[in-house]
Design goal:
The chain is mainly β. Among the domains are: about 110 residues, no CATH class; about 280 residues, Lipocalin, CATH 2.40.128.630. The chain contains 5 helices and 34 strands. The chain has a 6-stranded mixed beta sheet, with no helix packed on it. A 4-stranded antiparallel beta sheet has the order 5-34-33-32, with no helix packed on it. It has a 4-stranded antiparallel beta sheet with strand order 6-7-8-9, with no helix packed on it. The longest helix is centred in the first third of the chain and has 21 residues. It is globular, with a radius of gyration of 25 Å. The two termini are about 40 Å apart.
Length: about 550
Amino acid sequence: FTQIPLGDCTEEQIFASVRPPVPFSLYNKALEYCRSLVSYGAGSEPTTIRDSQRNQEEAAGLLRKFALTLSASPADRDGLLLMEPYIAATVAYFPSDKQKDMVYSSRLLHYKNSLAPVEPCNPSNIRNVCFSLYSYENQTNYQPNLDFLLNTKGEQSNSVRWAWSLEGTLVHTNLQHTAAVNRLAASHNGKYFVSASDDCTVKLWDSREIGSPIQLYAVECTKFSSPVKAVSIMEGSKAFLTGEQCGKVQVVSLSGSMDMPGLSVTTSYQLGSPVVDFSRISEFCYLTATSNGKIYGLDVREKYPVFHREIPASNGSLRSILHSPGQWAVFGTSRGIYSSWDMRLLVETNSWAHPCHIEQGNNGINHAIHRMCLDPTQIEDPFFFSSVGDNEIFRWNAGSRIYDKVFRVNNGNNWSLPLERMLEGPLEFSSRIPEHVRSPNERTYRSLLSIPGTDFVLSGSEDCCIRAWDIDYPKNSKVLSGWNDLRTEPTYDFKNYSRKHGESSRSVYLVEEFTRSSKGERKFTARTGHKDCILDMAVVTPNTETSYLLSCSRDGAIKIWK
């Protein structure tokens, strides 16, 4: 269902896809009741996201009233109340079953005759489109400054054409940041990249200077009020989003040329909790998540978030997000809980816990899901990778909740199939320990990067190594940086395990990294590689023939590789 365009689905398909707890006849009766009483307004079409949200709240109240007056079994009444978010959203966004000429976006449902554009805006016509949002605080219309969206003429993206010749050759090392560099983001035209750090700054770098014999320096720097935990460059515009530890999100626009650039804040949001990450939904709208489990949709043309949802607090604090544009998203928590969402209806469709090994149990191991990335070899299917715990990377199917591949570094200990964990239970003690006081020797991948068009997933971990894992041909995997002795160069092998899933049996492929050292000890570089945990990686493409790998670490270092 998550792979089918919503406009092509029938009511029966939508209903069956979420495995509802009530009969379809009862669901259809509740839907007709709510639709007949909701005040859609003129034309029965929502014109702004505020209208849709008000319709959704009204539909939720009508559904509760319908359930209480229903002469049915208590189980059916409870089932209807359980489906309240889904039914209310369906009533608000789909006033009629027969409306097929609609496109759902994160901002609102655009009908073909809507004032808001269905296709991406032509920058020259932006000022002819009404983007005002009624403010409940000061009773005024909010007119955002859209100048930075008009600076896209002539900007073209350089697609990543990676022949995978990366050998781990260091090109530049930069230590201009004075604290951990949390995130890196490269522009789609390859002209610049930005770095976000715990030193409360975001630095702008000219990627055209990569490879020059002179030292690479930041061309501009912006100071913020708290450590910057997330950054994302807006595709098709000279602007990027920043997320701070204090919960503030700001849209920063770039003016001028890279020779004399200028940075200025155009829009600001206060979300109240540390920002975890961003993900692009559409041209102007970005998915934003905070550590307290809140999920926001931020449209840079609007003064306030256009939608927000929440993950149950019992799942733990939110650590990572993964979003497949326009379709589905997965959120990972500190308790090792995956929460899968249908982003077209903004409803949670599934949740499950990361498995644990027998000897670990539910205590003494940190199940936090640190990073996730899409599988570059399975573009059409909902496969993704996640890094959890003891230097292990799992490949999951978001639709079936099944993992089929595990990548790990063999530290001299045997591996066994982990056991499934239940969602219930008390919080693990380790999940409540602040990250900065945990053991610095924790072997965890803190950075994952998949590059479309390749068979590799890159990982950066606590052991200061950057690894390239070959998904289809494990023996081609390699360490790009982090080794200081060729005699300990690793080898890779894989095994096949049989895992029961219900009444059927499925295969799990384990890919392991071994060293040739007779003592079984690995030595790490003190020369070109990172000297602290690698926190993020990105790819920058200054031209269509050359690509570089960017990496950053907890000691404030940024390194560029080819």
